[in-house]
Design a protein that fits this description.
The chain is an all-alpha fold. The protein has helices at residues 7-35, 40-67, 71-88, 95-109, 112-127, 131-155, 161-176, 191-198, 202-231, 236-260.
């Protein structure tokens, strides 16, 4: 069949928006938490527990999206909820409330990229869309936002991290209305039970172990990289550049990927 009007352009716009709050969250949200007077243990717990929420909630939400009439509708709902929850961080609160908010945010934020990926991959199968040429826009915005946010926070304070994240989530919500509508997914989700059946395949288990190790290696840097660099006297602007560099490497990888494969 024919692709919806401006299919690739709309998805590039979506992926651009999706990585705006992610860039600020990784780079400057830990500094914002430190500014609230939280201890290292509290920061670590607050940034780690959402991972467990993601493990439980994301498969459920993505299954709903797989079986929905339009995956775009699910994305609109969860992106709107995430923007609303992020806005609550603007209200002064103690550690218990922040912990509850960040776990609630994770429940609505984590499924967003997988759902967007699902729409892109449907385009790959149906219309021959090039995944890398779309996904690279997310990396590009991640890079640009890190640099811009670093400059802003250097001239103001880490307190601006949350307002900028709110703006990012509102951008996702606005752009989600332009997500291409492809109708019901052709291959229905088998749900969590079928996922357990997949674990019987040895190669899949090895891939999951390798992926888990890669993600685990990110953990310490995600939680304390910015705080550690600041303790060494690195400016907020330089922190933004340090976080932007891996995104640049990712862009190079995607360019090579599309040519080699």
């Amino acid at each position: 069949g024919f692709a919806p009007s401006h299919f690739d352009a709309r998805l590039k716009l979506l992926f651009s928006a999706l990585f705006i709050p992610n860039a600020i969250y990784l780079s400057f949200f830990p500094l914002w938490l430190e500014g609230r007077g939280l201890t290292a243990v509290e920061i670590s717990t607050l940034l780690t527990l959402p991972v467990f929420v993601r493990l439980l909630i994301t498969p459920m939400v993505t299954q709903v999206a797989d079986n929905a009439r339009e995956r775009a509708d699910v994305l609109i709902v969860i992106s709107g909820a995430a923007a609303l929850i992020m806005g609550l961080f603007l209200i002064p609160a103690g550690y218990p409330v922040l912990l509850m908010l960040v776990m609630l945010l994770s429940a609505f934020w984590s499924p967003q990229v997988p759902i967007a990926d699902s729409v892109v991959l449907s385009g790959v199968r149906r219309f021959g869309t090039d995944y890398a040429s779309i996904r690279i826009w997310g990396s590009g915005l991640f890079l640009a936002v890190n640099i811009a946010a670093g400059i802003i926070i250097e001239r103001t304070s880490p307190d601006w991290a949350v307002p900028m994240m709110v703006a990012g989530f509102l951008a996702i919500f606005a752009v989600s209305f332009a997500t291409p509508r492809l109708g019901m997914k052709r291959q229905k989700s088998g749900g969590i039970l079928s996922s357990w059946q997949i674990l019987k395949q040895r190669r899949v288990v090895l891939i999951l172990i390798a992926t888990g190790l890669i993600q685990a290696s990110h953990g310490l840097m995600y939680n304390f990289g910015s705080i550690y660099w600041k303790s060494l006297g690195v400016s907020a602007q330089q922190v933004g550049f340090l976080w932007a560099f891996p995104a640049f490497a990712e862009i190079v990888m995607f360019r090579l990927y599309s040519r080699l494969l």
